[in-house]
Amino acid sequence: MTQLDSIDRAIIVATQDGLPLVPRPYDAVAEQVGIAAAEVTARMVAMIEAGVIRRIGAVPNHYALGYRWNGMSVWDVADGDVAAAGAAMTALGFVSHCYQRPRLLPHWPYSLFAMVHARNQDDAELLVRRIAQALGPMNRGHRVLYSTRILKKTGLRLTT
Amino acid sequence: MDAIDRRLLDEFQHDLPLVPDPYAAIGRELGIGAAEVITRLDRLCRAGCVSRVGAVIKPGCAGASTLAAMAVPGDRLEQVAALVSEYPEVNHNYQREHRLNLWFVVTAASREDVDRVLADIRRRSGIEVLDLPMLEDFHINLGFGLQWT
Lengths: 160, 149
Description:
The complex is a heterodimer of chains A (160) and B (149).
Chain A: H1 6-15, H2 25-33, H3 37-49, E1 53-60, E2 69-77, H4 82-91, E3 98-100, E4 112-118, H5 121-135, E5 139-153
Antiparallel strand pairs in A: 2-4, 2-5, 3-4
Chain B: H1 3-11, H2 22-30, H3 34-46, E1 50-57, E2 64-70, H4 77-85, E3 90-96, E4 102-108, H5 111-125, E5 130-132, E6 136-137
Antiparallel strand pairs in B: 2-4, 2-5, 3-4
């Protein structure tokens, strides 16, 4: 993984609440960071190519758009099947985040996490069934943990 | 929200043009001016439909983070949830339906800082904190396909 230098980090900090909604937003970022606008965009292109920046765009708030059912589906998949299962999940097109995490037996047997967002519980369960179908026998057990309350939600915060 | 708002959300979750005047570039695709793009995005942000217009950073690239879970007795949930949310390093905190009923993300400059926050929460609450850091991230390329029906 490419290491970010202090200027890259300053660009991320300056843009993490969003690009300014002004005609030339990268000029505003450049002024804040203290470099030329062309360097801001060049560094952002480099961070995209390095995979540090996933994408730049409008980040939808699923909840406000009516996707009130936020389900964290968790899957017990053999370690050797995780890559294939992860690829199968992301290929479905509706999973917003898909991560492998450690299983912590006996408390927690699930190693793959896939977030689904739906307008109601029936739709959410349909999405989970579609994931189960895509995984087939790779799925040794799963469940869905719905959020009952959002207690805190802010974007990823970086400090310089 | 009209058809142009929907297109803004559908088509510009990724690939916001990295040009000096990106909102003008979007406007050319939608057949509206830069000023109208800005007005609409500002309205969508204020309405909460758009969290922000900006970069989505790959997790784990900038510092360290983990997903943590706690099994909090029902009568202590409010208190422990508030204790957890106090930390500036906690950026998401959700109550979920499970024995492990409190799930939160801790993000800090280093793994040591994450450990320090987890240990502090453990000590102050007297409740075990499961530490589930990301091992692998299966890349979602195209943002989330919204359905408007």
